[in-house]
Structure of Dipeptidase:
Amino acid sequence: MEVVREPEKFENTTATTIICNNYLHYHAANQYTVNADRKSACRSLQKTDDLDLIERAVSTADDTITAIGEPYRQAGSPDLAQKLPNGAAAIFQSPSPSGEKGTGTDSDGSDRRRGERAVLELDCKQWLAVCGLLIVAAALGVGVGVPLALELRSSRLLEARLQVVKRILQEVPLVDGHNDLPWNIRKFLHNQLHDFHFSEDLRQQEPWSQSVWSHTDLHRLKQGMVGAQFWSAYVPCGSQYLDSVQLTLEQIDVIRRLVDKYPNQMQLVTTAKGIEEAYHSGRVASLIGVEGGHSLGSSLAVLRMFYQLGARYMTLTHTCNTPWADSSLADDPSDTLPMDFIEHGGLSGFGNAVNGGIVMVSFFNNFLSCTDTATLHDVIAHINHIRAIAGVNHVGLGAGYDGINLTPTGLEDVSRYPMLLAELARDRQWSSSDIKKLAGSNLVRVFREVEKVRDDWSQVGPTEDWISMEDLDGKTYCRYPGT
C-alpha cells in the first residue's frame, strides 16, 4: 500500500489551533490523510462558541476518547492496519493488482488503483467527541468568558494555558506595583549607573549574581511580559525625623536616570494613558512609588513635590508608625511590639486626608505563609482571599522583587508572572476577563478614577493642613524652630 504524506504548516498560536493543529499534524507526519471536509471542520472550530457543548465535552471527554475507534476494533476487519494513539482507528485498503477489484470494505465493488491515499475513518460520534474537545479550546481562544478552568485546568495543557495568558497580556499590560531595584542600586553601586548593565542578565554579574535580593533585569522583565512597573523610592524607617525627605528625592532621581538610560526599553509615565501608550510601543511603562509615609516628613507640601517629580503612589507606612498612621505590625503586639506601639488605632485625622488605593499582593514568603518557605499556590491563596473579601475589581500584583530575600517556589523572579497566571487559569472562578483585571486592568481603572478626582478638584486648590504638634509628639528636633 502506498500512502501520500500531506505536509502542513501551523503558524497560529491560540489554544484552539494548538490542539487542532496537533491533530492534523500527527496524521500528516505519520503519512495518514485527513480529507478536506474534516480538515475544514477542524479549522472552523476556532469560531465556535457553543457553551452547552463545551460543558458536555468537558464532563464526558475521558470516556468518549477511550471509546473512539471501538467499532473498528470490534469489527475485526482484516484491513484494520493500525490504531492511533488517540484511540481512533486508521483503515487501510490492501493493494490490488491493476485491473482487479479491491478487497476492502466498498459495497459497490469498484476498482481501487494502486497508490490510492488512505483515508482516516471516523464515524459521526467519534468526530463529535473530537469536536467537543476542540470547541473548549475554541471558546478560550475567542474569549467568550467561560471560566478558563473548563479546558485548561489539566497540567498536561500547560502550553495551552500559557498561550491563553500570552494572549491576555497582549491585550492588557501586566502591572507590578512594587519593585525595590532602586534601593539595590544604592546599596551596590551608590546610585552610580555607569557600571550598571540593566540590559544584560544580572544573574551572570557580580554583585547581583551573589545576592538573594536580586530578581530583576530587562531580559527577565521581557520574559515575564511585564508591561508596567512601579519602581519603589524606598528609604529605611530609621531615616524618619532625620533625612528621609532627602534620601527619597535621591531615590526618585536614580529611577528617572535609570529610565533615561534605556529609552528603547523603558518609558517614564505618570498617567493611565501613559501606561497604555508605553505598553503598545513595546516599552516597560515605568512609574514611581514612594514606600512609606515616613518619607514625607509629615508635610503635604513634600507630597505635592513628590507628585510633581513623577511619584504616583505612596504607601501609608512601612515597618514603622508615622505621626499620623500606624504600621500593620501594630495589629499584633508582642514582647518586641508592646501595646503602646498602637498610637492611632489606624489613621489619625491627618492620615484620613491622604488615604486611598488598591490591594496588591506581595510575594514575600514570610507574608504568605508566616514561614521562610512558600509556593506559587500560597500567592494564589492570598489573591483568592482578597478577591473573596474585596471583590475581583480590587486586587492586583505587587510582588516586591529586589526587596525580598525569600521568594515562593515557582515565582523566583520577575520572569515567572506568566506561570502564576497560567496556574490561576486552572481555577474555575477565574475567567479571562478576571485575569485581565488582576494583571493590570484594575490598577489602570483606579488610576483613571484618581485622575478624575484630581481634575474635579482642580479648581478647589490643594489642602493646606499642617500636621498637629500633638501628633508630632515632640519629634521636632530636626525642624527649624518656629516653622
Q: What stands out?
A: The first helix runs from residue 15 to 29. The beta strands are 80-83, 89-91, 119-120, 174-179, 226-234, 266-268, 284-291, 311-314, 359-361, 395-397.
